[in-house]
Amino acid sequence: MNRWRLRRLSTRSLLYMGAIFLALQAAFPFLWMVSTSFKPPVEVFAQPPSFIPHDPTWENFWRLFTATNFLTYFRNSLIVSGLAVLLTMVVSAAGAYSLTRYQYLGREKMAGLILCTYMFAPIMVVIPFFILVKKAGIENTHFALVLAFTSFCLPFTLWLMRAFFKTIPVQLEEAALVDGAGRIRAVIYVVLPLALPGIIATSIFTFILAWNDYIFTRILITSDELKTLPVGVQDLFHSALIDWGLIMAAGMMITIPALLFFVTIQRYLIRGWGAGAVKG
Amino acid sequence: MTGISDPELQPVASPEVRFRSGVITAEPGLARRARWIPVTRPKRREQLAGLLTIAPALFLILALTLYPVAYSIWLSLLEKHSFFPQERFVGLENYFYLWKDSEFWTSLWLGTVYSIWTIFFQVVLGVAAALILNEIFVGRGLVRGIVLFPYMIPTIVAVILWKWLLNDTYGVVNYWLFAFGIVRDPISWLGADHIMLSLIVMSIWQFFPFVLLSILARLQTIPPELYEAAKVDGASALRRFIHITLPQIRGILFVVILLRSIWMFTKFDTVWLMGEGAGAGRFIRTLPVYAYMRTLTYYQAGLGAALAVIMFAILVVCTVIYFRLFREEADIG
User: Fold this and answer.
1) In this predicted complex, what is the ipTM?
2) CATH homologous superfamily for A68-274?
3) C-beta atoms of B50 and A171 within 8 A
4) Do B6 and B68 have their domain in common?
């Protein structure tokens, strides 16, 4: 009996050690970033490093907002991600509706083809994309960027929305139609409200993808006032002396929106994840 | 009227009953489940509406993904400057050039090394962590949330975090190694000798949560009775893992390894931001980075496209072999 309890105790403690390790390895780099971002420049380079700033200050954030183009990048990121979400949602909701509600030849083949394009990695698309965008004369515009994000997200948002639309019984719509509503009214008042969890989950996935993107922006945008956060922050690195306090403050400011969205979607996450929705 | 809303057994009088847009059929004499079968030949109006609503999505995917990929095959046959419109057809010359280009072979090798190590450890760590987080303990929900952070943040943040942790003079990693007396002199983690190691560690940190969550989602669906039965029979934890868990997660493991392999082999942003191709970055110049540099550092769009095509061809061949090797798992997954 005693030996059994001892063994149980040791497996429990192993389990807790594993869990603590998992939490720490993920959280420590972030905590270190937060700590660094509140340190005055002298303390950033102090040896031995202090884990809690002795003399916490907002100075790094102040410099980030006033001395760099950070706020412009932030605004650009919001605009581009927001527009990408809007376009992606409209197009993929219409597409998913078509794939689940209408009968036509080649429908399943089309769905399969769309899924296949999910396998193309950005690096394979972006080089020809860059040349084509130049030929079309829309390089260095947010428009090109929004198009790029949308086409990149579409395969999985379509797939996910299709899965959500499938769970909404057709009979509800038919009832609305029988009651004299038109097709569009039926969709707006019956289908979309029921698909709302799916729409929210999908749009947040799209937002995070657009918000985090580096490669499309790097290639398609050249002028500083159009850059989004990841590219803008990378360029902060290129100064002669790297200002770590400033960089860490910038890192925090990019992470916060992404994390906020992440926390809101957590409950949808497992479901979406099961459908393979996150790419990267 | 009840035929549609109620999928249960329905004695249907005539073998075929027309009902608005569908047909209810039942095999005569047999009271089998009445099935609502869509009309086989859709009405023209419906077909048109269906095609119209899918058209925007289809157009975007065709024009902005499939067409560029097809165009890159054409581009790989040209000699073309990335910024100027002049182009010249050179046939397979780009490919011949790459065949003799030692940098191409180096990048292929570095990319393979990077992919294999990161995929191996992601899978091992991901499965182990999923097993831990599938147990019941205090604070499980919190740990499950925290563990996913690294996968959700922008790559640029992950890279600046690690560059700061690994900084040779002020980094906390070197400080600890020194404080615990493991090293005498600071290690230059981002220098030529160690940069590949640093990149691999960082990539595992960033991407293993994907494996973790996919496996965890599957683990939660394994009926607990299986384990209870095995426990009663006195099977050890290791044997329970091998004989119950592993067969159950085989299908999802197949998919996860496939996806991770494709994504690691074509991983650009993490690798590029870590080294930017120059200096010590030459030692992590994988195939995607090399393709990018040919296009945007040397402005040889044709060569860049040829590299992208080669990358794609390698992926297709490997995927086919993978499906052949694990045919059984492919059916489950």
Assistant:
1) 0.86
2) MetI-like (1.10.3720.10)
3) no
4) no
